[in-house]
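In the design runs reported in the main text, the only information available to the sequence generator was the tokenized backbone. The following block is the verbatim input for one such run; it is reproduced so that readers can re-run the procedure and compare outputs position by position.
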């Protein structure tokens, strides 16, 4: 018989509770929340099954499980999310970085190899900073600007840059509603962005984890087509000749946005699929 305060018993109890509350990833979340609390890697829980939690640990774990049962995302409870080669600090002021966005970073880095020289790069709507910081980490000779409309988000991006990058001289932060406060004399070789793109009307069918906790400003738009067309047109004027634009987007709009861009002065354009075969990215060349 297991002791009720053992890791094994507490995991089982938490898993059952989360399942009852219809949390889909009950076991995984119970493990992540406990491992993080105890400062252990998740696999290490399995070799410490008999270990007993003290009173403080038990209370803290209970609080975490209660939060999760109310659909609070695990990343906001632990305050972190792995993305590409780093761990980003996150809270409710920023979107939790998604795997699709890692694919966007990967595409950019595979196109711009190590030896492509110095580049000036903009990560528009940077949120946690995950795109721009991952690029800067991989390409030390780039100069990256991270911008966001939200002061709170920029504070988090700054914190992440300081934690993840050895030196932050090559990175600058701008509070800006899209391009409006980005000086027009700054011209970029590359603009990467994961802007809000979900139609407000889709909100009803979405998970509570997202709708109840993540910043709506980072997710939803009244009219995605209009907003994204304008964003693309503005990006064109901020790029150098031959500059590249990479955007994560709504699969239903990707083809139209590329076709429209080709009639509006962009030289080249393509849609790229994500790992679930959705038309998730557009890549344009000025
Ligand atoms: N760039 C951040 C991310 O990809 C935030 C995006 C956003 O807030 N729309 O996660």
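Verbatim output:
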């Amino acid at each position: 018989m297991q002791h009720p305060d053992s890791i094994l018993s507490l995991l089982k109890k938490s898993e059952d509770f989360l399942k009852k509350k219809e949390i889909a990833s009950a076991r995984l979340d119970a493990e992540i929340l406990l491992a993080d609390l105890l400062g252990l890697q998740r696999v290490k829980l399995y070799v410490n099954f008999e270990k007993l939690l003290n009173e403080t640990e038990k209370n803290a774990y209970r609080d975490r499980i209660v939060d999760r049962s109310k659909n609070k995302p695990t990343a906001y409870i632990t305050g972190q999310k792995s993305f590409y080669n780093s761990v980003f600090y996150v809270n409710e002021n920023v979107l939790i970085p998604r795997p699709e966005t890692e694919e966007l970073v990967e595409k950019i880095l595979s196109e711009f190899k190590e030896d492509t020289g110095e580049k000036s790069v903009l990560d528009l709507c940077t949120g946690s900073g995950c795109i721009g910081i991952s690029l800067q980490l991989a390409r030390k000779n780039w100069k990256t600007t991270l911008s966001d409309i939200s002061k709170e988000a920029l504070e988090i991006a700054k914190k992440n840059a300081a934690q993840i990058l050895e030196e932050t001289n090559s990175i600058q932060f701008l509070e800006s509603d899209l391009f409006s406060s980005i000086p027009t004399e700054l011209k970029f070789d590359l603009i990467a962005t994961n802007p809000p793109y979900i139609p407000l009307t889709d909100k009803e069918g979405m998970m509570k984890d997202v709708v109840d906790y993540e910043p709506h400003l980072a997710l939803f738009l009244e009219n995605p087509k209009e907003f994204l067309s304008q964003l693309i047109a503005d990006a064109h004027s901020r790029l150098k000749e031959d500059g590249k634009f990479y955007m994560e987007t709504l699969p239903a709009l990707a083809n139209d946005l590329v076709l429209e861009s080709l009639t509006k002065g962009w030289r080249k354009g393509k849609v790229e699929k994500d790992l679930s075969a959705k038309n998730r990215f557009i890549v344009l060349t000025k």
